[in-house]
């Protein structure tokens, strides 16, 4: 479990990036931090692995205040996927994936074997192992970034807009893959995006941030759609495509999932229906204001 308790972050230049935030993140779930540019998403994410330290308050991982854990050790135990994959351009794919195991002193041959397994895990051909990042497509590079973050077998995976740079179809593929991976590997995933559709597609829990690093709402996608906390949230979840109106379709009995559609009937996301507040046939409209 990851817990933010009364966390505030003010940067040395006076910028208040996060203001008194409380969040509980359950193990083996996907929590999506969503908000517009500058709302403090990256700051919040980086406080989990101590790339940023809070000004006040505490961040706890499994009950331990991360402030008491050596930052280098902490960072090697938590997977981190950066925007654009963050791959080292002059290292082969296999060595990029093995970065952390090699730093930890794992033998080169064992690290290579593990890297190849991880390429399988994220759905990449092993034939890519000896190529360089620039020889891969954007989507393939993103998958390598995920493989690298998984290399140390962390319980926690932090992902900062990892699919931002790829086209919508590949992005959808990567989202599906991430959901599959998360349930197969039992990781706790904290995922940052400014794309509300992506948030609905992935989240077990959404944390909607407003400018100034203030939490506007925390809830399941179904809760947020059915009961936006205020006008800000209502407009944020509806304003993405002008006058879009998101609504819930009745549950699909075959899959047990609820489909979120926009006013043109285009699916905007899926909700796993284990949320009691939404019953069959409930389709509250959420209007852009
Ligand atoms: N090192 C820093 N020093 C001073 N201010 C910073 C620093 N890093 C971030 N900020 C400021 O803190 C606020 C939150 O930044 P943060 O990067 O967390 O936002 P974000 O939600 O991730 O934005 P984006 O969607 O653009 O990535 C912004 O106002 C930003 O300018
Ligand atoms: Mg950011």
TrEMBL record:
Region annotated Disordered, chain positions: 270-289
Domain of life where this protein originates: Bacteria
Pfam families in the cross-refs: ABC_tran
ABC transporter domain mapped to chain residues: 2-237
GO molecular function, one term: ATP binding
Swiss-Prot/TrEMBL keywords: ATP-binding, Nucleotide-binding, Transport
Family, per entry: Belongs to the ABC transporter superfamily.
Protein name listed in UniProt: ATP-binding cassette domain-containing protein
Species per Swiss-Prot/TrEMBL record: Agromyces allii
């Amino acid at each position: 479990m990851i817990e933010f308790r009364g966390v505030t972050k003010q940067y040395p230049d006076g910028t208040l990036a996060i203001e008194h935030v409380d969040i509980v993140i359950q193990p083996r779930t996907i929590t999506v931090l969503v908000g517009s540019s500058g709302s403090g998403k990256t700051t919040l994410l980086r406080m989990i692995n101590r790339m940023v330290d809070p000004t006040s308050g505490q961040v706890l991982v499994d009950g331990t205040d991360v402030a008491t854990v050596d930052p280098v050790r902490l960072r090697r135990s938590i997977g981190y996927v950066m925007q654009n994959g963050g791959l080292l351009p002059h290292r082969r794919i296999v060595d990029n994936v093995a970065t952390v195991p090699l730093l930890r002193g794992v033998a080169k041959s064992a690290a290579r074997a593990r890297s190849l397994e991880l390429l399988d895990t994220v759905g990449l051909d092993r034939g890519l192992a000896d190529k360089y990042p620039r020889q891969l497509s954007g989507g393939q590079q993103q998958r390598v970034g995920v493989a690298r973050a998984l290399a140390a077998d962390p319980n926690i995976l932090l992902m900062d807009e990892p699919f931002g740079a790829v086209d919508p179809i590949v992005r959808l593929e990567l989202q599906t893959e991430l959901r599959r991976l998360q349930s197969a590997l039992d990781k706790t995933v904290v995922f940052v995006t400014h794309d509300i559709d992506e948030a609905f597609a992935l989240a077990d829990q959404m944390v909607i941030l407003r400018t100034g690093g203030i939490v506007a709402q925390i809830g399941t996608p179904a809760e947020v759609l059915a009961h936006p906390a205020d006008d800000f949230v209502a407009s944020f979840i509806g304003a993405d495509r002008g006058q879009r109106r998101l609504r819930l379709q009745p549950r699909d009995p075959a899959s047990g999932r609820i489909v979120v559609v926009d006013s043109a009937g285009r699916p905007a996301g899926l909700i796993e229906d284990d949320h009691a507040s939404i019953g069959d046939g409930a389709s509250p409209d959420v209007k852009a204001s």
